[in-house]
Amino acid sequence: MHRLGPLVIFLATAGVAGSAVAAEPEFSGARAFAHLEAICELGPRPSGSAAMDRQRVLLADHFRQAGATVAGQAFQIRDRRTGKPVHVENLIVTWHPDRADRVLIGAHYDTRPFPDRDPVDPQGRFIGANDGASGVALLMELAAAMPTLPGPVGVDFVLFDAEEYVVAPRDPYCLGSNYFARQYAADRRAGRLEHAYRCGAIVDMVADRDLAIWQEQHSVDWPDTREVVDAIWETAARMGARQFIPRPKYAVEDDHVPLRMIGGIPTCDIIDFDYPQWHTTQDVPANCAAESLEVVGRVVLAWLRGLR
Length: 308
Hints:
Largest sheet: 7 strands, mixed
Mean pLDDT: 92
CATH class: Alpha Beta
CATH superfamily: Zn peptidases
CATH architecture: 3-Layer(aba) Sandwich
Distance between the termini: 19 Å
Radius of gyration: 18 Å
Shape: globular
Helix content: 25-40%
Strand content: 15-25%
Number of helices: 8
Structural class: alpha/beta
CATH topology: Aminopeptidase
Number of domains: 1
Order of helices and strands: EHHEEEHEHEEHHEHEH
Strand order of the largest sheet: 1-2-3-5-4-6-9
Low-confidence stretches: 1-22
């Protein structure tokens, strides 16, 4: 596989025995929602926290058992309040490492330190059921279908840390994806990449009970990512997934921006940004839905299966 800077190999398996893998597993919203609930039971998961450490172990174990190789990409940032170092670690989950043509599916797995948009308690407890857990839960369920993914394309799931490590209004977002993109770009310039990404997609805030996935404006405006958007939304249309609306509504500064602008990976954003509980104490499982996870998960899986 390609080099991505300093990687610490967590766990690896040779694969899953054929008798244990269904021929064509389908995406289950109920199972994805159970993953979402299990993640939320860990509590708030900001970068550097004990709950984040527990989540990292849980995820590495889950993907290992599904047949993937899991690697950690660690680096360090400073807490802007105390100046103390904070351990940050992206997770890179590799499927079919022998396939040179690859696609990246990403999600952030940290939560915001505080629910700063909450009208009552902006320093309260933030669980991040939709903004944090939903994309991770989707990847956890998608894992069941990856060992039997047909075609020539390999897939990496990348779980980004420190997307939400924001304690003051001017603090930067997307620290994990920026680091990943810089390492990937440096390896590409140095000729160290064995495998390269054809394209990518970020899944974020995909469990809203009232799901509406508009096309993200940056993803539409960039010529190289527009092809990815068109392919995913056309897949949704063929499947009758009306929650995917084939028009842009908002521009979002999400993990797809550094992946495309720094890493040169044409990456689109799959996000329902119209979520009333965004960055509040009410971003909890009760305001999420298994049906929403199933819609998005089935579209992403069908798109991956159709890549040639």
